[in-house]
């Protein structure tokens, strides 16, 4: 997925900038001076479809065929996380026979 190439920074070009908004932002500019420094480091991306909370007693009863209702509805955005940190939101799509996420919004650090 192309998003993991840019993981690591906070802002981007934003409004009024010639650069497209990316996750790399200022980091990308600095790293471009040292292209091999960290760009080949792999990161694991996680797409969070939703969450559920349950008691341990109910968890112990789960078996094949059990259905766990999540806190999101069909069509809601999913969170994209790297190392537990939300970096983006997106929509679930199908690419050939694989699930994928189309990025709709980048999470801005405050």
Automatic annotation (TrEMBL):
Coiled coil regions in record: none
Gene Ontology molecular function terms on file: cytoskeletal motor activity
InterPro entries linked to this entry: FliN (IPR012826), FliN-like_C (IPR001543), FliN/MopA/SpaO (IPR051469), FliN_T3SS_HrcQb (IPR001172), SpoA-like_sf (IPR036429)
Annotated signal peptide: none
Domain of life where this protein originates: Bacteria
Region (Disordered): 1-25
Domain Flagellar motor switch protein FliN-like C-terminal: 38-107
Pfam families referenced in this protein's UniProt entry, alphabetically: FliMN_C
GO CC annotations on file: bacterial-type flagellum basal body; plasma membrane
Keyword tags: Bacterial flagellum, Cell membrane, Cell projection, Chemotaxis, Cilium, Flagellar rotation, Flagellum, Membrane
Keyword Membrane: yes
Spans through the membrane: none
Biased composition (Gly residues): 7-16
Keyword Cytoplasm: no
Gene Ontology biological process: bacterial-type flagellum-dependent cell motility; chemotaxis
Localization: Cell membrane; Bacterial flagellum basal body
Main location: membrane
Recorded topology in the membrane: Peripheral membrane protein
Role, per record: FliN is one of three proteins (FliG, FliN, FliM) that form the rotor-mounted switch complex (C ring), located at the base of the basal body. This complex interacts with the CheY and CheZ chemotaxis proteins, in addition to contacting components of the motor that determine the direction of flagellar rotation.
NCBIfam families from the UniProt entry: fliN
Family as reported in the entry's similarity comment: Belongs to the FliN/MopA/SpaO family.
Protein's name according to its UniProt entry: Flagellar motor switch protein FliN
């Amino acid at each position: 997925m192309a998003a993991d190439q840019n993981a690591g920074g906070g802002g981007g070009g934003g409004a009024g900038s010639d650069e497209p908004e990316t996750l790399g932002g200022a980091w990308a500019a600095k790293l471009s001076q040292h292209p091999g420094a960290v760009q080949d480091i792999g990161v694991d991306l996680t797409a969070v479809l939703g969450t559920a909370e349950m008691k341990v007693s109910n968890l112990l009863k789960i078996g094949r065929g059990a259905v766990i209702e999540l806190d999101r509805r069909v069509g809601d955005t999913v969170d994209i996380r790297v190392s537990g940190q939300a970096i983006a939101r997106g929509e679930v799509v199908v690419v050939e026979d694989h699930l994928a996420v189309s990025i709709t919004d980048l999470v801005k650090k405050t």
